[in-house]
Design a protein that fits this description.
It contains 25 helices and five strands. It folds into three domains: 136 residues, Oligopeptidase f, N-terminal domain (Butyryl-CoA Dehydrogenase, subunit A, domain 3, Up-down Bundle); 215 residues, no CATH class; 191 residues. Helix 4 packs across helix 6. The two termini are 44 Å apart. By secondary structure, the chain is mainly alpha-helical. It comes from Vescimonas coprocola. InterPro entries: M3B_PepF_2 (IPR034006), OligopepF_N_dom (IPR013647), OligoPept_F_C (IPR042088), Pept_M3A_M3B_dom (IPR001567), Peptidase_M32_Taq (IPR001333).
Length: 585
């Protein structure tokens, strides 16, 4: 089994004639976009639609393959200056057709006979959702000149404020244990097995924010006001309305999701109180104990163990998933181990040109690394389901992006809990899963409440750090209730979470809750229906890039606007909370 991935399915290297040839071909494809934009007004409408799709697909085909190669090379070795440089070159190339592309999309959107053109030509059926989306999007477009001006001003607006916040949080010096460390390192100590370390790290973290809170508050205020103003100019009812539109989600679905979460909050407070008592706290769990490890599992696994473990689990679910996972291990889809220069964390990257994926992990032999592999290979399985769409129709929105990955996690961890050889091992598995679930329920809910409050208040007032801290604490008290020690919360979560600082993507919170609970609801459905569920599951994944989330779920017989569906996933977590409480008595 190879320890590093094989990228030769893309290119052998940057001096590969195929790479240099595709770079040249991309220039030609971009020129074709610009040429078509100049000719569009005089073209027959059906011919224009076909040519528009052709030039879009050609640019996407080349840019996708080239960008993926550069990106994967950078991820495996951040010191690969050639990969970084060529990635920048590609971005610059594509900016050369941005205006023409916007003009073409507007022209196509305004075709009065677009429906008739699609109805008359079966070859356009795979592109129907894309073309209808372009038409829907057009009502939020400004003039070409205004779009260009906004894009330029955004560089020194929200984008610059976001960069400032990133710079400040990555460079702030944290005084800890007689030395200096960084914010990322101090926050990682929340997982330390020593309670004294967890508490002192939390105190050091809060203290460091005082150095940068004023500047970051300016960043947040500026970004949120820009979002409010842009929504007004473009015609969105609110920033939340825009976020739902971007997610292809109805407000009724969000209402059902949040309503079900609200019903089950007391159950999660019960889990937090039980964890607090088990750790010696009588007034609820202090914030610094949220990620305290519990139970114990000393098992270590090799990559071969991981392969065998996952194949055994997934083989019982679906042969296609089993065979894809086997290929991933055998055909060098995975870059397993940490090394100098390799990025941290884990991710999956679909490679449409080869109908494969590439997965990066930092495997060190813990069971959590097997769960990570299951998660990323879930993304790869999702990739497989959408590869049959045209390349320009393979993108799906964030709420459904975590469906297959989280489903794989639930399959894997549920099997591990059932097979646990001791209560201590079972406790470690269940607590880890509940800790993650608490993040997507309580923490995400607090973030949603906080961001809603910020958008409501910002038009009338500048929110200084003290006001932001107050708003954050109010949101946490509503979301965590008496599960947490009310005297030991985290007033600076608005500062340390980068999700609030995007000018283009607001409410970067509820999609996490959607993804986690959608996958759990699907798993509950699988438990009820068995093998009959699997074809519907794959058909549903296939549809994620060409339908709204509600229509996607209908394929599996699910009504996302009904709280009853969301309660299924929440009830499965409630059952685990009951088991956790028994184990820690």
């Amino acid at each position: 089994m190879n320890e590093v991935w094989d990228l030769s399915i893309l290119y052998k290297d940057f001096d590969d004639p195929a790479f240099t040839g595709d770079m040249k071909a991309l220039d030609e494809a971009i020129a074709a976009v610009n040429t078509l934009a100049g000719e569009a007004a005089g073209m027959e409408h059906s011919q224009l639609v076909h040519r528009f799709l052709q030039v879009q697909e050609r640019v996407e085909e080349l840019a996708n393959k080239l960008f993926i190669f550069c990106s994967l090379r950078c991820s495996a070795n951040t010191a690969d200056t050639k990969a970084n440089s060529l990635g920048d070159q590609l971005s610059a190339k594509l900016s050369g057709c941005a205006a023409a592309n916007a003009s073409l999309r507007r022209t196509v959107a305004e075709l009065e006979d677009l429906d008739a053109i699609m109805d008359a030509d079966p070859a356009l059926e795979p592109y129907r959702f894309l073309l209808e989306s372009i038409r829907r999007d057009s009502k939020y477009l400004l003039t070409d000149r205004e779009e260009e001006l906004f894009a330029r001003m955004n560089i020194s607006g929200a984008s610059a404020w976001e960069s400032l916040r990133d710079n400040l949080t990555s460079s702030v010096k944290v005084e800890y244990d007689g030395g200096i460390t960084n914010l990322s390192a101090i926050r990682n100590l929340a997982y330390d097995p020593d309670p004294a370390v967890r508490k002192s790290a939390y105190e050091a973290e809060l203290a460091c924010y005082d150095k940068i809170k004023d500047s970051v508050a300016y960043a947040l205020n500026s970004i949120k006001l820009q979002v409010i103003n842009e929504c007004q100019v473009r015609g969105y009812a609110s920033p939340l309305n825009k976020a739902l539109y971007q997610s292809r989600m109805k407000p009724e679905t969000l209402d059902a999701l949040l309503g079900a979460m609200d019903e089950y909050l007391p159950k999660f407070w019960q889990y937090l109180r039980a964890k607090g008592k088990a750790l010696g706290h009588e007034n609820g769990l202090p914030w610094y104990e949220l990620f305290a490890p519990m139970g114990k599992s000393d098992k270590k696994y090799t990559t071969q163990d991981a392969k065998d473990y996952l194949l055994n689990i997934f083989g019982g679910f679906d042969s296609q998933l089993h065979d894809m996972v086997e290929r991933a291990f055998d055909e060098a889809w995975i870059d397993f181990y940490p090394r100098n220069g390799k990025v941290g964390g884990a991710f999956d990257c679909g490679v449409p040109s080869a109908r494969q994926s590439r997965v990066l992990t930092n495997f060190d032999g813990a069971f959590g690394d097997i769960v990570t592999l299951a998660h990323e290979l879930g993304h790869a399985f999702h990739d497989q389901q959408v590869f049959s769409h045209p390349l320009v129709c393979q993108e799906y929105t964030m709420p459904v992006a975590e469906t297959a990955s989280t489903f794989n996690e639930v399959l894997t961890v549920s099997a591990a809990i059932d097979a646990a050889e001791s209560d201590d091992e079972k406790l470690a598995l269940i607590e880890s899963q509940l800790s993650d679930a608490c993040q997507i329920i309580c923490d995400i809910y607090s973030r949603y409440l906080f961001e809603s409050a910020v958008f409501a208040a910002r038009p009338e007032e500048f929110l200084d750090p003290d006001r932001l801290c107050q708003m954050m604490l109010e949101a946490q008290k509503k979301a965590y209730g008496d599960g947490l020690d009310q005297t030991c919360l985290h007033p600076y979560m608005w500062l340390c979470k980068g999700h609030y600082y995007s000018g283009g993507l607001s409410f970067y919170n509820f999609p996490y809750a959607f993804g986690g609970l959608f996958a759990r609801g699907l798993y509950a459905k699988y438990q009820q229906e068995g093998k009959d569920f699997v074809p519907l599951y794959k058909k549903m994944l296939h549809a994620t890039s060409v339908t709204c989330v509600e229509d996607t779920a209908k394929i599996a017989g699910i009504d996302l606007t009904d709280k009853a569906f969301w309660r299924q996933g929440l009830q499965s977590l409630a059952d685990e909370i009951d088991l956790f409480c028994q184990l820690v008595k």
